[in-house]
């Protein structure tokens, strides 16, 4: 069973429906017991970093997220669920993240002709070494909606990049941990392929 963590920050039902479309049961839950029992865990998210971190802490999820990742359970973060994995975000101040990965979350600083948030379809590159990108070609387009992006201290965790005026991290991968800046659940056929691959890990 795949557990989708409910902390009131994202289009949870869209993620659940996407897994169902590729034939995998996924449960939306905020119950720590369900998350501990799950075979795989997904942390989606849309919204403000500070609010998300505070809600996860309020629900007692902060240590739980560390324990399930440390235990080697397959874990997928999506959009804000990627950013929360890092040490610190500079979205509307300075806010502590989970610190599962070292690095920071920063806002796009771009010429005026580049709109922020970055929204729409963008190409990714670097798929060859990422297990959940099996069957997805380099240069494939995925759907992004974000004003901030992650800057890992260790570049080796960056498994995909995209470009919006300049390159930025589109996916990280370390052992059982995968996390995307783009939204696979909004990325049609290629996004469903990624979710199918994750479910098969």
Structure description:
The protein has one domain (2-199): Class I glutamine amidotransferase (GATase) domain (Rossmann fold, 3-Layer(aba) Sandwich), CATH 3.40.50. Helix content is 26%, strand content 33%. The protein contains six helices and 13 strands. The chain has helices spanning 12-21, 32-37, 49-58, 61-70, 80-83, 188-199; strands at 2-5, 26-29, 40-43, 75-78, 86-89, 95-96, 101-107, 118-123, 141-146, 148-152, 158-164, 166-174, 177-180. It has a seven-stranded mixed β-sheet with strand order 2-1-3-4-13-12-11. Strands 6-5-7-10 form a four-stranded mixed β-sheet, covered by helices on one side. The longest helix has 12 residues, at 188-199. It is globular.
Q: Under CATH, the topology is which?
A: Rossmann fold
Q: Which overall shape is indicated by the principal axes computed on the Cα atoms? A: globular
Based on DSSP secondary structure assignment, what is the total number of beta strands?
A: 13
State the strand order across the main sheet: 2-1-3-4-13-12-11
Strand content: 25-35%
Task: Specify the CATH homologous superfamily.
Answer: Class I glutamine amidotransferase (GATase) domain
Whole-number mean pLDDT: 95
What order do the SSEs take from the amino end to the carboxyl end, as H and E?
A: EHEHEHHEHEEEEEEEEEH
Q: How many domains comprise the coordinates?
A: 1
- What is the CA–CA distance across the termini? 12 Å
Structural class: alpha/beta
The CATH class name reads Alpha Beta
């Amino acid at each position: 069973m795949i557990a989708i963590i409910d902390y009131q920050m994202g289009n949870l039902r869209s993620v659940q429906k996407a897994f169902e479309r590729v034939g995998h049961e996924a449960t939306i839950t905020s119950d720590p017991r369900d998350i501990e029992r799950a075979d795989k865990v997904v942390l989606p998210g849309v919204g403000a970093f500070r609010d998300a971190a505070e809600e996860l802490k309020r629900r007692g999820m902060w240590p739980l997220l560390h324990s399930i990742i440390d235990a080697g359970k397959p874990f997928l973060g999506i959009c804000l669920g990627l950013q929360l994995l890092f040490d610190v975000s500079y979205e509307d101040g300075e806010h502590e993240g989970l610190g599962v990965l070292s690095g920071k979350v920063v806002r796009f600083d771009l010429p005026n002709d580049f709109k922020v948030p970055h929204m729409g379809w963008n190409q990714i590159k670097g798929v060859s070494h990422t297990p959940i990108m099996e069957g997805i070609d380099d240069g494939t387009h995925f759907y992004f909606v974000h004003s901030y992006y992650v800057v890992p201290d260790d570049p080796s965790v960056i498994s995909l990049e995209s470009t919006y005026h300049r390159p930025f991290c589109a996916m990280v991968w370390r052992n059982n941990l995968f996390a995307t800046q783009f939204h696979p659940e909004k990325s049609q056929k290629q996004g469903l392929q990624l979710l199918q691959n994750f479910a098969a890990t």
